[in-house]
Specification:
single chain; binds zinc ion; 7 helices; Rossmann fold; eight-stranded mixed beta sheet; alpha/beta
Length: 287
Amino acid sequence: MLPISKMKSFVSSSSFSTLSPYFPITASPTLSLAYKSTQCNPIFTHLSNFFSLKTPRVSLPRNEGFSTQKRTAQMGASLSPPSGEVHVIVGPMFAGKTTSLLRRIQSESINGRSVAIIKSNKDTRYGLDSIVTHDGMKLPCWAVPNLSSFKQKFGEGAYDKLDVIGIDEAQFFDDLYDFCREAADMDGKTVIVAGLDGDYLRRSFGSVLDIIPLADSVTKLTARCEICGNRAFFTLRKTEEKETELIGGADMYMPVCRQHYVSGQVVIETARTVVEEAHKVEFTTTA
Ligand SMILES: [Zn+2]
């Protein structure tokens, strides 16, 4: 894997946070993580949720009658504790999604929250016990085949104490939607998800886009076009393989702008056709 420092991402952020009392997106050079936090007490979290339910922040028009207020209060009382959050980071390859995820996780950890990072065990490029960015940043993580197995692997008790869960390469997890919904809605976790929104053909990749309706914030990062240096929104596959999930780095993929995505696809398709035709001729002449 090549360090692609020249493709450091530039954030085109459309973040909007409605339920975010904490979420400083400040980078820190320190890489240490406090996995067990003493400051984040689940009891306190539950108590604050309880009290926040007592005073639902619902403003009613003046002409609404008592019955509406009563109904609103009943609705508030029947809701689950609204303490979790879901934040989604998408973009092409080499846009700095993992770097952004690790910085956010690191920041949460420095603020005393208990954190864990999950990645798919399909991606074995750097080993399974750590997560590494294209520019060399590295943190420990949990590699699992699917998200539903995380709680058991991590331990139920340890899971209960977790405040923040980071998910990298989220396009590889089919159960992303259910996991995020349960973790944020039911378990009160802050879930930060990083993944590709589109594959090399710019089709929706995995379940990443499915969780947008669950999200507090969505951030689309961009890279630098490897050909012209303009902002890159897409990932061009340089090789001829056609499967959607083909894990690789700068040897197989490059970030490109729209113009160079379109022209690049034409070049690659043409090359593929030429190669296929050549194989046919070879087969015919040898058969
Ligand atoms: Zn370009």
